[in-house]
Specification:
31% of the residues lie in helices and 17% in strands. It is an alpha/beta fold. β6, α4 and β7 form a beta-alpha-beta unit.
Length: 293
């Protein structure tokens, strides 16, 4: 049996419900779990490492936009609205429609995606500060009504040795792009060496599962006609595949990318009919229901 995990990054207080519904209804109808890496309290001026405004910031929270249209992505930061959390941030609970939608649709599994999604937010040497950010993010998600998350995704997939130790102490699953020995606590090096020697994509440190992914195979940077074949080939050669995508890429510029959306829906159909493949959640791994090796 091959296992596939769908990881969609960057759900936040500005995410329109209609975008997630459009993308993932075919998955929900087929009982295929979708893991949403959710930003607990998004920085409404969040920037990419090269200084650009993050593409996941949409204007549905900052302005009154019709639900029948796709809200435009922001070209400038939205105004601060009191009550969202720290000044310049918006807690996920500020979007009550989104929270209710996610809770009502059990096929969604909430994963903690940092705290504010600031550039390289967990690439820092201070363990106490890493712990503070982790705990705050978890508290915001729980206060919104979600179960305590069992899996963690760092913004930009970057974790320092100090942050890794704090995350591993609190979560049963860490999903990242890859791991380098220089960015690991020294006490983890022997276990990492075994992983490298055996050429394993995924590994354990204590009770925590550390997952790698093959890059964003579901991306608007890729030619749509090649995406499904690439995914099928990767799944065929790996026991567990983490497929990373970003909901906002399907609506980049405020318009739905119909071809890209159709590829995602073709993937749902393939996953549902392929008897040798099972779609699972990070929570399944956290419970120990499935072995990664």
């Amino acid at each position: 049996m091959r296992y596939v995990i769908i990881r969609d990054d960057d759900t936040n207080a500005t995410t329109p419900v209609d975008c997630l519904e459009r993308l993932y209804r075919p998955f929900l109808e087929r009982n295929l779990p979708v893991n949403l890496a959710t930003i607990p309290e998004v920085n409404t001026n969040a920037r990419t490492p090269d200084g650009k405004l993050e593409g996941f910031l949409f204007s549905s929270v900052a302005a009154d936009v019709s639900r029948r249209s796709v809200p435009q992505q922001l070209t400038s930061p939205p105004p601060y609205v009191g009550g969202y959390g720290e000044e310049g941030t918006a807690a996920i609970s500020a979007n009550s429609e989104l929270v209710r939608y996610l809770i009502d649709n059990l096929g969604y599994h909430i994963v903690q995606h940092g705290c504010h999604h600031e550039p390289m937010e967990f690439d820092l040497p201070d363990r106490a500060e890493a712990a503070r950010r982790i705990e705050k993010g978890t508290a915001v998600l729980v206060d919104a009504g979600f179960s305590r998350p069992q899996a963690f995704v760092a913004p930009h997939d970057k974790l320092s040795p100090a942050s890794l130790q704090e995350v591993a102490a609190r979560f049963r699953v860490i999903s990242s792009g890859w791991y380098e020995w220089r960015r690991l606590p020294p006490s983890w090096w022997p276990r990492y060496g075994v992983k490298q020697l055996l050429a394993k994509s995924h590994w354990h440190k204590g009770k925590t599962v550390l997952l790698s992914h093959p890059g964003c195979l579901l991306s608007y940077h890729r030619a749509p006609d090649t995406i499904l074949e690439t995914i099928v080939n990767h799944v065929a050669s790996h026991r567990v595949t983490v497929l990373v995508t970003h909901w906002w890429e399907y609506f980049y510029g405020g318009q739905p990318n119909e071809r890209f959306i159709s590829v995602l829906h073709e993937l749902a159909a393939w996953l549902a009919r392929h008897q040798g493949v099972k779609v699972i959640s990070f929570d399944d791994l956290a419970r120990g229901d499935i072995s990664i090796n």
